[in-house]
Design goal:
Layout: H1 2-9, H2 16-45, H3 49-56, H4 78-96, H5 99-118, E1 127-128, E2 133-137, H6 143-150, E3 156-158, H7 174-180, E4 183-184, E5 189-193, H8 203-210, E6 215-220, H9 223-237, H10 244-248, E7 249-251, E8 256-257, H11 262-266, H12 269-276, E9 285-289, H13 290-295, H14 297-307, E10 319-322, E11 327-330, H15 355-376
Parallel strand pairs: 2-5, 2-6, 3-5, 6-9
Antiparallel strand pairs: 1-4, 7-8, 10-11
């Protein structure tokens, strides 16, 4: 049709040369159009992925009004969207430092974690790494509180459960251990807590085999209060166990304490610390006061953040004291209708112990406490 139209309208029918020219021109134009159509369709079907990811995700901090572009390409790059969500939340937290912005970060982080845990086929952000820091003890000292408080920091990702790798599961290997860890970005710290590590003789050597630069956190508490708390917890699970006095003493009349009872031995901190110092420098170990963690949680967490090389983001604005539990709780995040307090087992009322027994225990622990104060260079005032 194009040939007949052009030949009839533009040139005389008697001009053979012009007809040939127009015929060739028409064929060339059609071929060019066909090639262009093929290239255009190919570019639409297979776009440059890096370019489209750039279009879908804006990683620069542009404020709270920054939005993800809505297009079918954005469904491809789930990894980029996750990074954008967390980067935006961290930016807000660092810029403002107030409670509402911190809650916004927590909400974003919870949503991201939820999406990742429920969609195994979606791309993951970050990598699973062996821990940079460990909360290694002590049982009934306040380790759960330290973990829950420090993990609200945007640069900390922590395993919620106790893996017991360095005491019970070491034969499963480091690959198994690494697989338990949360995914982290290069700028984030990976943590876990297992309080029994502190009293496990093989744990320091095994941890040093992982990395001699691992940072260690030990939450210590008045050993007399700690052993009573330990017994109270065991009694709640096993009501038929012997009385506290029967377990504490080899001979009650002579006041000889039974150091074979593990609950007693845990509080002899200096003995365990000497084992750790064979593999780690004292500067690699940070001691948290279990008592100060209750009365001044922000101060203790500030020192933990300093020890880990983190910016002090967790402050007194994040805490309030729950008088019912007798323990500090995290203030209510925007994503929850309730404040974040520790479980029912935390802050439980201790069993009543005869005052004479308590005084005997204080006398027993005093020389161990003094040596511990001298070793760590801090008086915890337990005596």
């Amino acid at each position: 049709m194009a040939y007949r139209f052009l030949s009839s309208r533009i040139v005389p029918s008697s001009n053979r040369l012009n007809r040939r020219f127009i015929f060739i021109f028409t064929i060339s134009l059609s071929f060019t159009y066909l090639c262009y159509s093929i290239l255009f369709c190919s570019g639409t079907i297979m776009p440059n992925q890096r370019l489209e990811e750039h279009r879908c995700v804006h990683l620069k901090n542009m404020g709270s009004k920054k939005l993800l572009q809505k297009s079918h390409y954005c469904t491809i790059s789930a990894k980029a969207r996750v990074i954008s969500d967390e980067t935006r939340a961290v930016g807000l937290l660092n810029l403002t430092g107030n409670q509402s912005k911190h809650s916004a970060f927590q909400k974003t982080k919870d949503v991201v974690d939820h999406k990742q845990s429920n969609n195994s086929n979606s791309p993951k952000y970050g990598n699973k790494k062996l821990p940079n820091a460990l909360i290694v003890g002590v049982k009934k000292g306040g380790t759960r509180a330290v973990l829950e408080f420090i993990r609200i920091h945007p640069d900390v990702r922590a395993l919620g459960t106790e893996p017991h790798f360095f005491d019970r599961n070491y034969d499963k290997g480091f690959d198994w251990y690494r697989g338990l860890m949360p995914r982290t970005l290069d700028s984030q710290i990976t943590m876990e807590k297992t309080p029994s590590y502190f009293v496990t003789r093989e744990a320091p050597r095994r941890i040093s085999n992982m990395s001699r630069e691992t940072k260690l956190i030990v939450v210590v508490r008045n050993p007399v209060t700690r052993v009573i708390s330990d017994y109270t917890q065991t009694l709640s699970k096993k009501p038929d166990i012997p009385s506290f006095e029967e377990l504490v003493f080899k001979n009650r009349s002579q006041g000889i304490v039974d150091t074979s009872w593990n609950a007693i031995r845990i509080g002899m901190y200096i003995l365990h610390l000497e084992n750790w110092l064979q593999y780690f420098r004292l500067s690699q170990i940070h001691f948290v006061s279990g008592e100060q963690l209750i009365t001044d949680p922000a101060g203790e967490l500030g020192r933990v953040q300093d020890f880990l090389g983190l910016k002090r983001i967790i402050t007194d604005k994040h805490f309030y004291f729950n008088r019912t539990k007798g323990f500090p709780c995290l203030k209510k995040p925007e994503s929850s209708s309730q404040p974040r307090c520790l479980g029912k087992s935390k802050g439980r009322t201790h069993v009543q112990i005869d005052q004479e027994v308590i005084e005997q225990l204080r006398e027993f622990y005093r020389p161990f406490n003094v040596k511990f104060y001298e070793m760590v260079g801090h008086d915890f005032r337990w005596d």
